[in-house]
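#struct-pred

JT: dropping the chains for the assembly here, can someone run the whole complex?
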Amino acid sequence: MTKIPLGGHIREVGSTEKYKTGAWRTFYPELDDKKCIRCGTCWIFCPEGCIYREKGKMKINLDYCKGCGICANECPTGAIKMLLEEK
Amino acid sequence: MPRRDVIHGSRALAEAVKLCDVKVIAAYPITPQTHIVEDIAKFVANGELKAEYIKVESEHSAMSACIGSSATGARTFTATSSQGLALMYEMLFVASGLRLPIVMANANRAMSAPINIWNDQQDTISVRDCGWLQFYCETNQEVLDYTIQAFKISESKGVYLPSIVCLDGYVLTHTIEPVEIPDKEAVEEFLPPYSPPFFLDPEEPMTLGPLGDPSVYMEFRKEQQKGMEKAYEVIKKVNKEFEEHFGRSYGMIEEYNMENAEIALITLGSVAGTIKDVIDESKEKVGLIKIRTFRPFPKEELIKALKDVSSVAVIEKDISIGLGEGAVFSELKGILYATNVHPNIINAIVGLGGRDVTKEHIAKIIKECKKPKQEVIWVGLK
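RK: done, full complex below.
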């Protein structure tokens, strides 16, 4: 039988990264870099912590984005649009 | 020297909590449990018990706070009753799933509707599958003793499951009886400080309560069942140790006048006292089997105790509506099916919502089970 640690506790910190939740999404965010003013509002509001800065630009990690749309709703310049996932 | 006090069952329970050096209590008042937590609050306020007493806005919050507290490695206690226990329902599974040895007292009380604050055992029987150990008390001495034992059993290696000490509302909570209260030193010797196998610690971060998807969930549940099987062994060992320390001993079941008995009455809780009186006065070869631990269910003990009897009556204060019988009766029939122990067996539903269970009722049940006309009888019905 698979060994389960008592009560399912996990000693390894950050193991959640192994569990990619991007596939749960119905809508995905698309960021228009021309409209983006780098204010970081989306970064503050993202409940999954999947928005990050790279070389001064805002980026979204779609491996973990669940498509809630809070970033698009909060963006002061309308730089983020939610589009339907069509695979 | 142990002292002898004449006290309520609720007070006996509060005294046990004080003796066990509980570190955190999170509870919400509900009749007839209230003066358990009232007494504990007094102990904490006047410094007799050095513990954190968390006042909460509901029983759901009480159990949630207990889970958090126990996860940090603190010995944790709560008490509730009836609707309060029902409000805790989802958190009961979380506590046992995370393997946290919380001890809870439940003052057994009928479930609404109609609203009723009096005693039966529908509340704890209804949470039998939550993964908590359940102990049923007959006397106030048992209330104190089982509470001390419950911490030791729950905190034992391989068990790590929470326990409910069930005491009949009013019949025990509000009734005064002599109780021997052991010395603090003696209890400390019997019950060392809780040493958790893991605990939440900012210095060593870990995850508790992660997602368990279909690839691990079944194994997780099997581990809980193994914990309960371990408890089955541990209870016997703890009883023996308890007897060495305090001179009182309890089995998984208690047998009263069962030698040469032809009729066996089976019950849980305080009504056992009334039944013993009837047995003492009866000319029949009748004995009593009192189930002390309902979870884990004392399968082997019951089969062994019933092998030479011809008639059995299960007397219980709960009813599974739709099946039309009590849970203990159903479970007993279930375990006997696979054996060659097949006495006549009937179910007496008694005492729902605080209806008195009299000696005449018990005598009637004895008479009925010798020549059963029907499988289930409601005794005391108007």
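JT: nice. The CA atoms of residues 8 and 174 of chain B lie 5 Å apart. Chain B touches chain A at residues 97-100, 160, 197-198, 205-212, 216, 219-220, 222-223 (CB under 8 Å).
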